[in-house]
């Protein structure tokens, strides 16, 4: 497996699984640029020092949040939400019950908005929803295929936000920064021409910090019960999961870029996203 380790981890006190998507090898012998796109676990508990590191040192200007509306509401405002210089965009990849809303257009303490969370909202917190087909595939692969069906429009919207972003870095995150974030980042890296095994290796890198990821989520009332119900092994990403997803996209669409073509993310948008990651 190709190495994707050197110089990519960003160590923060208030979160984990944070790394730059720069330095990944491309098919044409180049590599992705540092300081363009970062991936991470939840950003709710960043310290003031973390905010300084991300915003002032790394030039963070945009947050792409892939959590559900329920997650955003229950977790509340994170420290980056207080900064006018940082734009927040919300694109849930999971089916949502109840009223759909631009959660960032209102304050999270809005009682009317909270009242629209159904009693079983917690069942959709973490990404275990699976596509009804492909029963022979592993639950993780079926879940990722489900994002591309149920969450298709928001997968595309997240990539469009990255492609159309202005100067500065963007961070893509969900709760753990490995599943929903992993799929969106894999598609973006494919557009940039990153070698498939490097995409797989980047995805699997989250396994190295899985104990920290579980501890981060277990410390939040939003995720604590789910962390207690499942062991660490069930949360750990495996290279074969992403490898299989890429194989299925190859078989069905001619690759991840083919899936984007088939779903309206055309050459112009792909060129803009490629420039963001490589320009």
Q: How would you describe this protein?
A:
By secondary structure, this protein is an alpha/beta fold. It has one domain: Protein tyrosine phosphatase superfamily (Protein-Tyrosine Phosphatase, Chain A). The protein contains 13 helices and five strands. The chain has helices at residues 48-57, 69-75, 111-115, 139-150, 152-163, 180-191, 196-204, 210-218, 224-229, 232-235, 239-253, 256-262, 267-278, and strands spanning 19-20, 37-40, 60-65, 87-90, 169-173. Strands 1-2-5-3-4 form a five-stranded mixed sheet. The model is unreliable at 1-5 (pLDDT under 50).
Short description:
The chain contains 13 helices and 5 strands.
What would you say the CATH architecture is? Answer: Alpha-Beta Complex
Reported for the largest beta sheet, the result is: 5 strands, mixed
Q: Kindly state the percentage of residues in helix.
A: 40-55%
Structural shape: globular
Number of β-strand runs: 5
Q: The CATH topology, please?
A: Protein-Tyrosine Phosphatase, Chain A
Rg calc: 18 Å
Q: State the domain count.
A: 1
Number of helices: 13
Give average pLDDT, whole number: 88
CATH class: Alpha Beta
Order of helices and strands: EEHEHEHHHEHHHHHHHH
**Helices and strands: which structural class?**
alpha/beta
- Reading side by side through the largest sheet, how are the strands ordered? 1-2-5-3-4
- Low-confidence stretches are 1-5
The CATH homology group name: Protein tyrosine phosphatase superfamily
Distance between the amino and carboxyl termini: 26 Å
Name the beta content range: 5-15%
């Amino acid at each position: 497996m190709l190495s994707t380790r050197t110089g990519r981890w960003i160590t923060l006190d208030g979160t984990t699984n944070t790394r730059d998507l720069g330095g990944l090898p491309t098919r044409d012998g180049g590599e992705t640029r540092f300081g363009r796109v970062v991936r991470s676990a939840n950003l709710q508990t960043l310290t003031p020092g973390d905010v300084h590191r991300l915003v002032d040192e790394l030039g963070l200007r945009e947050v792409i949040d892939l959590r559900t509306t329920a997650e955003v509401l229950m977790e509340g405002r994170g420290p980056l939400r207080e900064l006018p210089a940082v734009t927040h965009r919300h694109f849930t990849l999971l089916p949502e019950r109840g009223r759909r809303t631009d959660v960032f257009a209102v304050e999270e303490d809005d009682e009317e908005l909270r009242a629209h969370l159904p009693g079983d909202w917690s069942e959709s917190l973490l990404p275990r929803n699976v596509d009804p087909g492909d029963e022979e595939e592993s639950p993780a692969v079926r879940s990722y295929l489900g994002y591309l069906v149920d969450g298709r429009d928001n997968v595309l919207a997240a990539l469009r936000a990255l492609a159309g972003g202005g100067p500065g870095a963007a961070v893509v995150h969900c709760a753990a920064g490995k599943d929903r974030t992993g799929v969106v980042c894999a598609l973006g890296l494919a557009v940039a021409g990153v070698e498939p095994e490097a995409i797989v290796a980047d995805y699997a890198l989250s396994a190295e910090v899985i104990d920290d990821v579980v501890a981060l989520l277990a410390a939040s009332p939003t995720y604590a019960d789910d962390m207690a119900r499942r062991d660490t092994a069930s949360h750990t990403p495996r290279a074969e999961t992403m490898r299989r997803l890429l194989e299925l996209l190859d078989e069905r669409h001619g690759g991840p870029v083919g899936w984007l073509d088939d779903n309206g993310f055309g050459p112009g948008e792909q060129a803009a996203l490629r420039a963001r990651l490589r320009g």
